[in-house]
Amino acid sequence: MADETKQEAAAPAAEVVVTEEEKKAEETAPVAEEKAAEADSEEEKKAEEAEEAAAGDEAAVIDGTGSFKEESNLVSELPDPERTALAQLKELVATALANGEFNLPPPPAKEEAKKEEPAKEEAPADKEDEPKAEEPAKEELKAEAATEAVAEETKPAEPVPEEEEKTVVVAEEEATKTVEAIEETVAVAVAAAASEEPEAGEPKEELIWGVPLAGDDERTDTVLLKFLRAREFKVKEAMAMLKSAVLWRKRFGIDELLLDADLGLRELEGVVFYRGADREGHPVCYNVYGEFQDKELYERAFGDEEKRERFLKWRIQLLERGIREQLDFSPSGICSMVQVTDLKNSPPMLGKHRAVTRQALALLQDNYPEFVAKKVFINVPWWYLAANKVMSPFLTQRTKSKIVFCSPGKSAETLFRYIAPEQVPVQFGGLYKEDDTEFSTSDAVTELTVKPSSKETVEIPATEVRSVDRLSVPVSWIPCESHPHHRRMQNSTVVWELRVLGWEVSYGAEFTPDAEGGYTVIVQKTRKVPAHEEPIMKGSFKATEPGKLVLGVNNPASRKKKLLCRFKVRSAAA
């Protein structure tokens, strides 16, 4: 705990919160953290006790005042002032396109590449030992050679030694070649520029995230509204932000970056990744900076300037691909995402990643407006919550409504408010697993609360009705082919998985037949499950008669527990 108080609140590179107020807040946060670091050991002990208490308290979740609700992108549903602002921005964009304002300025003039010079004649013997003069600039050298050649032509006729005559001829030929080469270069450049320029009256089409900035494409309104909302519908400010973003994308080489299949950072796939969607259909991006506890991984990502630059490109590439592949800019489409940032064991802010983190945050804020529907910070340490109180006055109400902070003890339950448990990865308290052959995200999860000092049961019937040979009959019985009036048993296999967050409960399973006087079968003997046990209990049972499987969870603790369960019943003839 003492070590954590010395850490500075990190601004993770994957955050895509795009408000100017957050920049101010990000600058203010270290002040609070520095004060926290100066606390003596007695205060640290009190803070640790407070953190443990908060882990089981509802107050450990700090949600923005009021829940953020995304505005409509349908022009017909916009208020009149916003519709007017959108029309004005469209006019500014059209004018800027016509004037070429979205084009990068030409690079500064550079000296032409020096061409290979002809083999030099041997210097006269009397000049061999003279020190070599400093070579003039290329253009000056050629001009001087041409001038000397002309001067030689205008001199009165004199007997010229054979060697000097050869030198004059070589200089004249070189000057002529130089002029011809320059003329040829200029002609080629003019032709290339002419081929790139659009025809008069037809400005070059500009795209951002695959959407044209002007024209009849309905997605254009959605993109322009993002910039307007980021600048509170101040048209000129939104236009300046849009122009800056387009020019930055060209300087950064976004299009080329998208074509680059691999930046050699596959080991970072567990640091930032997309997984599933929230309850409203927004794709979810997870940022897990605790992965950088691995020192080798940290060095591969931030070891030197070149590696840090590569990490920045990788992060922007990942975001761009997520936008292109998972978002829909049509007026009724999902055009923003949920960001989940795990602060558990995140590296201190004073490491090698500090500069690239700040740079990435600035780029995301300036060039990716309104791409966050909700920002959830999980496993937040107490000192980060304290820093948030200092940051809060600098944030707008709109930004506050998008951000949620929750302590380690409330992280999973907070996530479930926005993301269904079947969509949440196991590492964050959910049931989603890679390469799960039994269940998928389409298999809904039942959520139950096990109250303190009480027992909760889940009953799974093994007598569901299912179609067999085009007839709807009980799953446990099907007609006998040899004697149609008889029935033979059809076995049912029940498959389930169950998880109790934090465990420390007793768990057992038994099968109770429907037949009167039938024997109860103990499927799983009741036992206490410690917190460090496998996070998910899986089981299966083959029923040979109609009945129900009962899963029991007994919570002896003084705090309530969250129980997650899902199951399937499969039928197969005995």
TrEMBL record:
It is found in: Membrane. Residues 1-169 are annotated as: Disordered. Residues 8-17 have a biased composition (Low complexity). Keywords: Membrane, Transport. It holds the Pfam family CRAL_TRIO. Its main location: membrane. InterPro entries: CRAL-TRIO_dom (IPR001251), CRAL-TRIO_dom_sf (IPR036865), CRAL/TRIO_N_dom (IPR011074), CRAL/TRIO_N_dom_sf (IPR036273), PATL (IPR044834), PATL1-6_C_GOLD (IPR056794). Residues 20-48, 109-145 have a biased composition (Basic and acidic residues). This is CRAL-TRIO domain-containing protein. It comes from Zea mays. The lineage of its organism: Eukaryota, Viridiplantae, Streptophyta, Embryophyta, Tracheophyta.
